[in-house]
Amino acid sequence: MSIEVKVPTLGESVTEATVATWFKQPGDAVAADEMLCELETDKVTVEVPSPAAGTLGEIVANEGETVGVNALLATISEGEGAAPAPKPEKTEAEADSDDAPAGDPPADTGGEVIDVMVPALGESVSEATVATWFKSIGDTVEADEMLCELETDKVSVEVPSPGAGTLGEILAKEGETVAAGGKLAVLTSGSGASTAAPKSDTPAPQAAPADAGADVENAPSAKKLMAEKGLSADQVSGSGRDGRVMKEDVMKAATAAKASTPVAPAPAAAPRAPVAASDAAREERVKMTRLRQTIAKRLKDSQNTAAMLTTYNEVDMKAVMDLRNEYKDLFLKKHGVKLGFMSFFTKACVHALREVPEVNAEIDGTDVVYKNFVHMGIAAGTPQGLVVPVIRDADAMSFAEIEKAIAEKGAAARDGKLSMADMQGGTFTISNGGVYGSLMSSPILNPPQSGILGMHKIQDRPMVVGGEIVIRPMMYLALSYDHRIVDGKGAVTFLVRVKEALEDPRRLLMDL
């Protein structure tokens, strides 16, 4: 029987990958779940395991080729004795040892077993928590119907059904933590296809011992992880073919090194104040979600790492409000989206970032990385917590394109549909606390960015204009910046340029 090896799900926004390395060659014996090849996308490296034990037949996609999701990579021929149908010469006792239980009804033996796997969670995310199962064991599901929702420390990920059938077994229940690529559940289809590949009677081949003298190319994911963990190749024992170092080998070596290194005791958390018994009975203790834990950690890391400082100014919003009121109906009719304030602020920030590029830069070790583009992060509050979707190349967008992008990202954030790619790569962030009534605040940097602009509530205040006291719609602006890279002069200049552009929007047209 021939089994197809296909490209797994690569992530919500990733549709293709490049075949980086084949660990096996045609004719090689493979064990179930043994790594066959490694795929590289623009975000992550994905290892493809063998779906069954047998012999690698034909390699359809060679190294260097680009393949799409579900594309055929290779075929595997199951070894003798591994075929689902019992051989005539088998005894009754041998037949009972087959994978399918002897008591299964005939209808089940004609269905194909499909594994529901944890999808790719993003480059820096290795595990998730099962938040909700939408289906129960025995339920009938359609292809691409949502089975469950996973919660990572950054986004919520919905897992669709890889095929139509019946949910047979749930392996990871709600609240359990699962690793990327792990198995969540098992589906049984009613298509009449063969059952899931039974385990081969042949024991899985043992990993080849490492040969110190062999010139073996290590897995790309292993190289990357070694660089991140600060390990050299001679500190890691390879378990792959010909002693090739795999990703899991690096993880084991890093864990061993960490265990052997004496760890300084963490500072004790502040003790909780005594609570009366009558009050304790009225308290409710709820475990923090992974997203909330990550928000807390990143915000505290930002304070501990950056030399953060905030400068303030105020802006007269009359010109922007008058312009918006004059053209909002025509804008909506032509572009199909409302004209809001965020597009004006985004345009003003892009204009100011060109003059003060260090606010759009980041520190990498002892280097300063200047960005010749603007990926604008727009902070958004959701029921799950604060998220920052990114509007890519905002500096090349029109007002209408910016408003459409903000509306799409905002809707995705509220519905929990943001992917990892939607929140990565931002170079500057705008946070609008004014929608909640905030009059003034000091926003916290979103690392590794060096600047974040805080918008606030528009409030009528008496102002002196031309020697007379008039009522104007005023807004306080706050720029928090990393003083390690941005000097006070640059921060103040940036904020003044944003103020000037908003108080006279014509300056944006003339690039003044």
Give an account of the 3D structure.
The protein has 512 residues and is of the alpha+beta class. The chain folds into 4 domains: 1-83, OB fold (Dihydrolipoamide Acetyltransferase, E2P) (Beta Barrel), CATH 2.40.50; 106-195, Beta Barrel (OB fold (Dihydrolipoamide Acetyltransferase, E2P)), CATH 2.40.50.100; 223-252, Dihydrolipoamide Transferase, CATH 4.10.320; 291-510, Chloramphenicol acetyltransferase-like domain (Chloramphenicol Acetyltransferase, 2-Layer Sandwich), CATH 3.30.559. Helices cover 24% and strands 27% of the residues. The chain has 11 helices and 27 strands. It has helices at 92-96, 106-109, 220-229, 247-260, 277-280, 290-305, 318-335, 342-355, 399-414, 488-503, 506-510, and strands at residues 2-6, 16-22, 29-30, 35-40, 45-49, 54-59, 66-68, 72-77, 113-117, 127-133, 140-141, 146-151, 156-160, 165-170, 177-179, 183-188, 308-316, 362-364, 367-369, 376-378, 380-382, 385-387, 390-391, 428-432, 451-455, 459-465, 468-482. Strands 17, 20, 23, 24, 25, 26 and 27 form a 7-stranded mixed beta sheet that branches. Strand 4 (35-40) and strand 5 (45-49) form a beta hairpin. Helix 3 packs parallel to helix 4. The longest helix has 18 residues, at 318-335. It is elongated, with a radius of gyration of 29 Å. The termini are far apart. Residues 80-109 and 191-214 have low confidence and may be disordered. Residues 102-112, 201-215 have a biased composition (Low complexity). Its EC number is 2.3.1.61. Belongs to the 2-oxoacid dehydrogenase family. This is Dihydrolipoyllysine-residue succinyltransferase component of 2-oxoglutarate dehydrogenase complex. Residues 78-112, 190-215 are annotated as: Disordered.
